[in-house]
Amino acid sequence: MTGVPGKEQLARQLGESRARSLALLDPLDEPELLRQISPLMSPLVWDLAHVGNYEELWLLRATTGAAPLRPGLDSLYDAFEHPRATRPSLPVLRPAEARAYLGEVRGRVLDALDRTDLEAAPLTRGGFVFGMVVQHEHMHDETMLATLQLRGGERTLPDDAPLPRGRPVAPHDDVLVPGGEHVKGTSTDPYALDNEQPAHVVSTPSFRLDRVPVSNRQYAAFVAAGGYAEQRWWQPAGWAHLASSGRRRPMGWSEDLASVTRFGRVEPLDPDEPVQHVCFWEADAYARWAGRRLPTEQEWEKACGWDPVAQRLRRYPWGDDDPTPERANLGGRAARPAQVGAYPAGASAYGAEQMVGDVWEWTSSGFEPWPGFRAFPYAEYSEVFFGGDFRCLRGGSWATHPTAVRTTFRNWDVPVRRQVFSGFRTAADV
Questions:
Q1: CB of 260 within 8 A of CB of 397?
Q2: Which 3 state secondary structure label does DSSP give 225?
Q3: Which residue has the higher pLDDT, 205 or 161?
Q4: Kind of pairing, strands 306-307 and 265-268?
Q5: pLDDT at position 380, please?
Q6: Which residues contact 353 (CB under 8 A, 6 or more apart)?
Q7: Which of 63, 302, 309, 351 sits in a 20 to 30 Å window from 129, CA-based?
Q8: Number of C-alpha atoms within 13 angstroms, CB side, residue 262?
Q9: What CATH number should be reported for the domain holding residue 203?
Q10: Range of 85's domain?
């Protein structure tokens, strides 16, 4: 998305996100939509109705003052009131009811959009609240994909679109990011969420960063070398989690490291894909084993988006133009990461590649506010998570939609989580 979106573009983005949600769930029958596949995830029908309720809250009631369409739904679909493990017991809308509710909300939203002055109030200025809702639905689409990955059984996703082939990349072929001041965060991006703001100047010492994410081949060498059995590579909390969980390899890998189960299919493990479905502790242990470390959020963002010639932060690694299939693997066209080295056209100013798309990348940083942070439009999006045990992930994955990722976008999760499409790259001091 380049520039401030107009009403036609906002309506199109709303339509694209809804079409994606329904396409993911249409192949599943009612029992599949209602059951809880994992206590880590919601029943899929809860996610579906939740995106409709969120849209009603923000695009009807917050912007037009409309009364609730169906009193009582707010409590059912409040993610803070009802943790994921408890949601199967809720009297949620059945699939047909959920789809009807979403259709009713969307019809009213499009009518309201026609009447909305996009410059009249902070919430609607530049189309912000519409963009927030679009991003929210795409985030839940990615969450639903993670649920489908845990589901197993027959694959319900369409066959993968072709991806470009990678190219040989030497182990820990890295790029130099010289030290100095740079801008972090944004105060101008129309879709930026509160935790990305405001823009501020920071100084970063010189460091080196892997040109591409760590591959399956590299990570398999760590596993084969006994990395999961040697305490010296693990932080105490990570080692304790390893002992309690019994983890010995990435999620989905076979014991012999030869195959991976992906959306119900057993496939040969591609050694040249970025490693996927590893938690923070696994990423951190590998980095220590390799004699390196995970980058900080500040380092990651500079390597991704800072333009040292123009002295400004780019929206994407390559510039401000929207992502294309030649630059990044986004939007779920293929339900997998592309091989490392597949996107030289998407390189940052420093030569780092695949920093957007393919796999979310763990950083060493906890989730904290930027200086001058102001919660907007609600504290539960970011503020309530600051200062906890969360670690930040950056860059999006193959499942992330282009409207829901950019250089400044911040994701976060607890360090044991790995059902997300997470990988990493390593860094080193200079």
A1: no
A2: coil
A3: 205
A4: unpaired
A5: 93
A6: 211, 212, 317, 340, 341, 343, 344, 346, 347
A7: 302
A8: 18
A9: 3.90.1580.10
A10: 7-151
CB 296, CB 365: distance < 8 Å: yes
Share of the chain above pLDDT 90, in %: 94
Separation of alpha carbons 360 and 280, rounded Å: 11
**Given 118, 151, 184, which residue is the final one in a domain?**
151
Distances (CA, A) of 101 to 16, 115, 225, 325, 425: 18, 22, 53, 34, 42
Mean pLDDT in the chain? 96
What is the rounded average pLDDT of the residues 221-234? 98
At 1 the pLDDT is: 54
pLDDT at 2 over 70: no
Q: Distance of alpha carbon 110 from its chain centroid, rounded? A: 27
| In a shared domain, residues 296 and 349 | yes
Distance CA 300, CA 407 (A): 9
One-letter amino acid of 389: D
Same domain, 284 and 390: yes
Q: What's the one-letter identity of residue 180?
A: G
* 51 and 199 housed in the same domain: no
